[in-house]
TrEMBL record:
The keyword Transferase does not apply. Keywords: Membrane, Transmembrane, Transmembrane helix. InterPro entries: 6-hairpin_glycosidase_sf, DsbDN, DsbDN_sf, Glyco_hydro_76, Ssp411, Ssp411-like_TRX, Thioredoxin-like_sf. Gene3D superfamilies: 1.50.10.20, Glutaredoxin (3.40.30.10), Thiol:disulfide interchange protein DsbD, N-terminal domain (2.60.40.1250). This is DUF255 domain-containing protein. It comes from the Bacteria. One of its GO terms (biological process) is carbohydrate metabolic process. It comes from Candidatus Fervidibacter japonicus.
Length: 794
């Protein structure tokens, strides 16, 4: 519990409400069906709002009706913002919103509005900024804010215990009646502060060049390495949230620079998270965050956006390292999402709750209540009942399950063990048992499957089954990347199905997007994150499939996004359109649980420029980076998405300089698709058309020259042989001796053998590394990346 601390900015608010305590914790709801009158929320589609439809509070959804009522009746507004899978909103509902006395006070003195923060992130962003002002920088959910009838906030906090909440309500009602001018003065001051902060007044944009970019990127790398928890991975202390964007930045910079500390920081964090309890070792997928520094005890809700971003990072770590551990975590996370968070239409649900009813039998007189983590906790006897004595005992030793619980709910005493690998490893147990690592993992997977089947018979956590365009787009992009890095065709198929759903169901006839969908109803105008995330997802799909429809859709969406959100005068993208029903428009730039919408918009436009050659898209990206350049310098850890764009921008500049010279006219693979029988060999040809007046170094050039190299990445096929063509010897003005080179159109032939156990389709990646020169100079080495589907049949 944290006492409210007045600050210089909020002294008027503090004077109004004196020593009110704002307890700042995250919350969620758990509704018991009751036979009573339903309020207006019964007509909504949001699971969160529907869970409050039976409260005695006369709730309104966000909209004109509520604000008109407040103006007409001259009442302040009580705004409550939360989401359906958050624990402390459950608590505040049970204690306050189901309390008849508190409901009567709210109904008499206030107009009460409920908002699902996932359905209206624009509303949440604005009023969370107010709460941060009122509470000296501490926010969370449930968010409780008091507004004037025109929407200006004058006091707020998060969770309030019932008796305190009642006192606050009565005091605010008195102040509204008796000291209105003071209240309005505070509201005006806070509204001005919010507008200044959200519209992000920064120093004048500075011109961007490659030297500046390199300096900013190096500083960001060093800042991350300084803040790394060198024991547990991650950044900072408890609570720890998965650092999605920082991990992507570290991997990206490592791939470009081969700077080993960057890889070590990313790999340590990825490994520790996957060993800890924040990862679901029975069913796959990640929980929201860890309450401790060791990643052991999670807050148990599972969010689509976390699993989308983490799966793609683990898949990329596998591609960079070849470490099967990272592949396993990525594949299990994708499997969890496809199994448990997929709608019949092929879209993805938003979240799974942290709470559920305990599986343990209770006395008949016991009134059941939901417990945090009940679905995920185990006791040794429960494991042995599923696996048998011997296997059950071994599983408990490996995964840290004992009679000493590692999780105890401090409020209810409910306890159990969270499976984890922080103190043991499957690899070490393989040595102890004289088994190969593969055999040991096969045995562990067999046990995990049995335990998952048993767990599925427990009461399940509530699923928030609304479909959000932005979060679904993150998952589409992740699946496309998963297909690229892991080669599993199921990921491509799922990505295409969801992208088709979004394009046909979440897009209006005028080309704009809806944000939210449930029970056949699409609603809420799309915001910048919906457009930006979907743009990058469509481009990723085009990258891995080569199908023109995805690129065409990306162009249409990009043009609509620029028209609706781009600020031509000052640069950057607004979060909402000019028609939005909010107090102020913002320009979201900082990463949170989701990537920065401005960063993702810039990334999508940069990639679209590279694919289409249209400079107008690249110009907007450059202006966005220049607009927020100061932010990347001041708070690099909060601007990782923008830094990723900056890195891609500077790499693209170098590559485009090479491409502009057009030394390579075309690279292509024949055939475009290969089908092999298991154990059989097939032939592929990689063709390289070199422009007249240019050459590339041979596969075996003179020392100190970059050779032409071809590598293959695949789980299902191995390279038996690679045959380069004969080289030519030429004399060039800058070389003292003749050089071995390739000119004209050449063909590199590969013989691929399908592994005996291989089955199904895989996207096989070919990387051609070359350096082009003319008779005066050599350009920087380049890598051409090609992919073709390879199917293996029995």
């Amino acid at each position: 519990m944290r006492s409210f601390q007045p600050t210089r900015r909020t002294v008027l608010s503090a004077l109004l409400l004196g020593g009110i305590v704002a307890i700042l914790v995250c919350g969620g709801i758990a509704m018991l069906e009751r036979a009573q009158r339903r309020n207006r929320l019964a007509d909504e589609t949001s699971p969160y709002l529907l869970q409050h439809a039976d409260n005695p509070v006369d709730w309104f959804p966000w909209g004109d009706e509520a604000f008109e009522k407040a103006r007409k009746e001259d009442k302040p507004i009580f705004l409550s913002v939360g989401y359906s899978t958050c624990h402390w909103c459950h608590v505040m509902e049970r204690e306050s919103f189901e309390n008849e006395e508190i409901a009567a006070i709210l109904n008499e003195h206030f107009v009460s509005i409920k908002v699902d923060r996932e359905e209206r992130p624009d509303v949440d962003e604005i009023y969370m900024r107010a709460v941060l002002i009122f509470t000296n920088g501490h926010g969370g959910w449930p968010m409780s804010v008091f507004l004037t009838p025109d929407g200006k906030p004058f006091f707020g906090g998060t969770y309030f215990p019932p008796e305190q909440f009642k006192r606050i309500l009565l005091e605010i009602a008195r102040l509204w009646r008796e000291e209105r001018q003071r209240v309005l003065q505070v509201a005006d001051e806070v509204a001005r502060t919010i507008a200044a902060e959200l519209q992000l007044t920064l120093p004048s944009a500075q011109p961007l060049d490659e030297t500046t970019a390199a300096t900013v990127l190096n500083a960001a790398e060093n800042a991350l390495l300084r803040n790394l928890d060198k024991t547990n991975g991650g950044f900072g202390s408890a609570p720890k949230f998965p650092p999605h964007q920082a991990l992507e930045f570290l991997l990206r910079r490592y791939a470009a620079t081969q700077r080993l500390p960057l890889w070590e920081a990313a790999a340590l964090t990825l490994r520790k998270m996957a060993q800890g309890g924040i990862y679901d070792h029975i069913g796959g997928g990640f929980h929201r965050y860890s309450v401790d520094a060791q990643w052991l005890v999670p807050h148990f809700e599972k969010m689509l956006y976390d699993n989308a971003q983490l799966a793609q990072v683990y898949a990329w770590a596998f591609e960079l390292s070849g470490d099967p551990f990272f592949r396993r975590i990525a594949a299990d996370t994708y499997a969890f999402v496809l199994r448990e968070m997929t709608s019949p239409e092929g879209a993805f649900y938003s979240a799974l709750d942290a709470e559920s009813y305990p599986p343990t039998p209770r006395p008949a007189s016991f009134v059941p209540s939901k417990e945090e983590g009940a679905f995920y906790l185990w006791r040794p006897d429960e494991v042995r009942a599923v696996l048998g004595e011997k296997d059950g005992e071994l599983f408990c030793k490996i995964y840290g399950i004992s009679d000493e619980p590692n999780f105890v709910n401090p409020h209810t005493g409910y306890s159990g063990c969270i499976p984890n690998l922080l103190q043991a490893s499957v690899e070490n147990w393989a040595k102890v048992l004289n088994m190969s690592v593969e055999e040991m993992w096969a045995k562990v997977d067999e046990w995990r499957a049995k335990l998952r089947d048993a767990r599925d018979r427990r009461p399940k956590p509530h699923c928030d089954d609304k479909v959000l365009t932005s979060w679904n787009a993150l998952m589409v992009r992740s699946l496309a990347l998963g297909y690229r890095y892991l080669g599993d065709a199921r990921y491509r198929q799922a990505a295409e199905r969801t992208a088709t759903f979004l394009w046909t169901t979440m897009r209006k006839p005028d080309g704009t997007l809806w944000h939210s969908y449930r029970n056949g109803i699409a609603k809420v105008d799309g915001m910048l994150d919906d457009y930006a995330y979907l743009l990058t997802a469509l481009l990723e799909l085009h990258e891995v499939t080569g199908e023109a429809q995805w690129l065409q859709q990306a162009r249409e969406l990009a043009d609509t996004m620029v028209r609706l959100f781009w600020d031509e005068e000052k640069g950057g993208f607004w979060f909402t359109t000019e028609r939005a029903d909010v107090l102020v428009r913002s320009k979201p730039t900082i990463d949170g649980a989701e990537p920065s919408p401005n960063g993702m918009a810039a990334l999508g436009l940069l990639r679209l420029a590279n694919k289409t050659g249209e400079e107008r898209y690249a110009h907007i990206t450059k202006r966005t980076l220049e607009t927020f350049g100061e932010l990347m310098v001041r708070v690099p850890q909060g601007a990782m998405t923008l830094l990723i764009v900056l890195d891609e921008w500077q790499v693209t500049r170098k590559e485009r300089a090479v491409i502009a010279e057009r030394p390579i006219e075309r690279v292509w693979v024949e055939p475009e698709r290969l089908t092999l029988k298991a154990g059989a060999t097939g032939v592929l040809r990689v063709n390289i058309a070199i422009a007249q007046g240019w050459h590339i170094n041979s596969a075996e050039p003179q020392p100190n020259l970059q050779p032409t190299q071809l590598s293959v990445e695949s789980r299902q096929v191995t390279v038996e042989r690679v045959e380069f063509p004969p080289s030519k010897e030429v004399r060039l003005s800058f070389a003292p001796t003749s050089l071995k080179v390739y000119t004209g159109t050449i063909t590199v032939t590969l013989w691929l053998r399908a592994k005996p156990e291989a089955r199904g389709e895989e996207l096989v990646t070919f990387r051609l590394r070359y350096q082009a020169c003319d008779d005066r100079r050599c350009l920087v080495p380049m890598t051409a990346r090609l992919q073709i589907p390879v199917s293996v049949t029995p």
